[in-house]
Amino acid sequence: MNQIQTLQPSDRRLFLLLIAAALFLGTMLLWRLAGGSATPVVSSPARSLTPLSTADTVAQLRARLQAAPEDADTYAALGLALLQQVRETGDPSLYGQAEQALSTALALDVDQLDALVGQGALALARHDFDAALTWGERARALMPYRADALGILVDAHVELGQYEAAVAAAQAMVDLRPDIASYSRVAYLRELHGDTAGAIAAMTAAVEAGPPGSEATAWAAVQLGHLYFDSGDTARADAAYRDALSTLPEYPYALAGLARLQAANGDTPEAITAYETIVARLPLPEFVIALGRLYEATGRPDQAAAQYDLVRVMQQLNAAAGMNVDLEMALFEADHGDPAAALAMAEAAHAQRPTVVADDVLAWAYYRNGRLDEAQRLSERSQRLGTTSALFSYHAGLIAAAQGDAGRATTYLRRALELNPHFDLLQAEEARAALAALEQ
Predict the structure, then answer these.
(1) What is the extent of the structural domain holding 374?
(2) Which of 36, 62, 73, 154 falls between 20 and 30 A from 394, CA-CA?
């Protein structure tokens, strides 16, 4: 805990596992397209004013490979571009194409550093954190001063529950290159350790350090908005989401943040309309679930069920593309589906990822299956870092209430609502109702 406090800026929930791809791909692609120099080379004023889209970048790299099919550097750049394209389109089938390009780069040059880092980012995206750790260590051994390799290690250690190693890697990363990528990771580690103010400071530094107009900068602004929202500061959350939109107009993650604020403020019809638009453009599970919960909260169970069925289909596609989605689906099924299936997935995920998040999800799955002693044990373990999470506290409160421990249940439920009275559209209301019943 002391070490995380020393992370200096010279120091999100589901830690958005594509953070590595999101934050370093843009810069790497630019200098690869420019010929591989460390300083981007701009061939014309038009190019400097109008950067290539990711789709155009992919097309250009494919064309280059037709002329130079043995170019390992271009294969590596193609793999990285395809990973970024997954972020923008939500198409998990591109993971296979990215893997093929990165593997080809390494077949041509076993020490192709961008390909090693890209394989680490791909493993993170697929939630194969042991593999990500291996790729990150291999890249770091080849180039100890490559900050991107350290980023892979931070993310892998976090998602394997190896928090001391994650803090050490993050400190090395921020010492080496204090930028948007390192500050973002510091922010998440501080958040995990209950230092919300420190997390906000680090994420603010990330936004300020981000390249103007980049997706990475917009992404960091959205994460800053989430930190404000989770701490109950809706005004600053709104400002952060709008800052992201000033960087990238129509950025779906920022629009979703604003829609969540609309729902929190009681503007439910507007929030539903906003999420319907977002889902039509980028049908990611997090957006589809949010829309389903809005339908559920407004008495439209059939429409909610249709969204939840869509989530299951989407996660089947993700699994077919090589993603391990057990942890995410365990929480979803515990809330909206089969408790037994949720428990099986939560236990499998926890065995691979013994993190505080996995502790909380498994505790909730045990609760949904009536196994209250195990639920309490895992719920207590989920708080071992001091994480200040309204959702963790809500889960702990209902588990305590089910055990007949009114005092502990009241404490946890009050904490959840004090941290963020709008932490979840449905569950915040359930927390208020449970707390009122306990107080009576």
Answers:
(1) 328-439
(2) 154
